[in-house]
Write a structure and sequence with these properties.
- About 50% of the residues lie in helices and about 10% in strands.
- The chain has about 260 residues and is of the alpha/beta class.
- It folds into two domains: about 50 residues; about 200 residues, Rossmann fold (3-Layer(aba) Sandwich).
- It has a five-stranded parallel beta sheet with strand order 2-3-1-4-5, with helices on both faces.
- Helix 8 links the parallel strand 2 and strand 3.
- Pfam families: CMS1.
């Protein structure tokens, strides 16, 4: 009889362990928690992506005040960046690199213009026809500087209405694309607009592959905010290359002569 009772107790414990305290159930509980955590994380990521996409398409989350500043204030801001890039220069040398407010184009901003997106900004804000195709290969009338490859791709997509058989909208960034491939592409392609990261644009201008003979507009994509809450002027790797471009010929001379204007978007 005692042996039977012991057997009953062992059997009861075995059954209970499977239902309540067994190792398998502890593992299953942890696994369920992990699944819930992963679902919440993915949901947050998707929400952040949707917000970023909304900024790309309608500009409703634009909080950067730079485009609404006067030309004088924009010039002052750029001059401060110039001093950072050329911190080892003397005052006399820095004087030669000063930018005038005449280099900048003041846009008459309205909420309607912001919400219509970049194509409307180019046509209504700058009052010109972006469909114009310069005759020379690799020579756009507008260069748009963006902070990262993904942003360049999004901007290029939004400007596909200006892509024709006669002229392309160039997408220029270093990620996955070799410099020599871009040089080859520009040597045989007419452009309306070039969109790119400052580093890649600098290299292409320096190699005389991206020509500025017909350039009229330098557009800085300053209002966009990425998922890490960074903007163009928050990333030294972006604006330092831009500063080097506009403080050296040929762009330096073209800005002084009034042939090119800098525009904050």
């Amino acid at each position: 009889m005692k042996e039977n009772k012991a057997d009953d107790i062992d059997e009861q414990y075995y059954d209970d362990s499977k239902n309540f305290s067994g190792e398998n159930n502890i593992y299953e509980f942890s696994e369920t928690d992990n699944v819930i955590f992963q679902k919440k994380r993915r949901k947050k990521e998707k929400l952040a992506q949707r917000k970023a996409l909304k900024r790309d398409t309608d500009g409703s989350d634009v909080i950067d005040a730079f485009p609404r500043l006067s030309a004088a204030m924009q010039a002052d801001h750029v001059e401060k960046r110039i001093c950072e890039v050329y911190s080892n220069y003397s005052s006399l040398e820095l004087d030669d690199l000063r930018v005038s407010e005449k280099y900048f184009f003041e846009v008459c901003w309205t909420d309607d213009l912001i919400n219509k997106g970049l194509p409307a900004f180019l046509e209504q804000g700058l009052k010109y026809d972006p469909r114009y195709v310069p005759s020379a290969f690799g020579s756009p009338h507008t260069i748009i500087f963006a902070m990262a490859a993904l942003r360049v791709a999004n901007i290029t997509r939004s400007l596909r209405c200006y892509k024709t058989k006669e002229g392309d909208v160039a997408k220029l960034f270093a990620k996955h694309i070799k410099l020599k491939d871009h040089i080859s592409y520009l040597s045989r392609t007419r452009l309306t607009i070039a969109v790119g990261t400052p580093g890649r644009i600098f290299d292409l201008v320096d190699n005389e592959a991206l020509k500025v003979d017909f350039l009229k507009w330098i557009v800085l994509d300053t209002t966009y905010i990425d998922v890490k809450k960074r903007r163009f002027w928050d990333m030294p790797e972006c604006w330092k290359m831009l500063i080097k471009l506009i403080t050296n010929d040929p762009l330096k001379a073209m800005l002084k002569e009034g042939k090119v204007k800098i525009v904050y978007y």
